Amino acid sequence: MYSDNGTNFKGAASYLRDLYKFLNVEYRPKIEQECAESRIIWKFICPNSPHFGGAWESMVKVVKAHLFRVIGHQLLSYEELNTILSQIECLLNSRPLTVLSSDPAEPSALTPSHFLNTAPLLSLPAAEVKSDSLLHRHSLLDKLVQSFWDRWRMDYLHGLQVRQKWNTSSTPIASGTVVVVINDNAPPLAWPLAIVESVHPSKDGVARVVTVRTSKGTYLRPVVRICPLPKQ
After folding, report:
1. 3-class DSSP state for residue 154?
2. If pLDDT is split at 50, 70 and 90, which confidence band does 232 have?
3. How far apart are CA 194 and CA 227, in angstroms?
4. Is the pLDDT of residue 72 over 70?
5. CA-CA distance, 82 to 88, in Å (whole number)?
6. C or N: which end of the chain has fewer Cβ atoms within 10 Å?
7. How far is the CA of 110 from the CAs of 34, 51, 95, 154, 232, in angstroms?
């Protein structure tokens, strides 16, 4: 576990050390064993070096930006805000990072959840929330989470697409590449994966259309509607 040197983190670390010293000797081996089995180590980055934590600070920035837009002036209780943040945590940890399996029948991707839970995150299908049902607080929370998902998912997928200037050629999509197919109606935690089977260049030699295979079939898709995984 990595963190910066904020006073809240330093204070928590000091409190845990004092608590560990206070515990009876017979409980200390159990704590050490649990930390060893779970590989729990708390490391602080260098002081006055926030860029050392850029990997997580960038995600914190994204969450704050979209969360402010989604919640707006809504007044939420602590439990409601905690519920939304927990669901947003699941959304962020479900994003595909690199290819885990290139099986043509059902490709899969490695996600942050595999490192945290040793398995991908699963969720029950979320019902589409209509505006007239926002009288109920639970429906309101679902609506806020769906709104965050729609905003952040498109923001993340757009970041995966390389945009070069027109006078600069980019690396073309090749057969066998695992991609995320952009689906505007994808429910939360759903990242439609596909494998590029063939590329169809235009007369000028530029590939603008590809054939992709998903677990449900084979389809023609424009290159602008697919995103290669970040690491592949």
Report:
1. helix
2. low
3. 10
4. yes
5. 10
6. N
7. 26, 25, 8, 19, 11
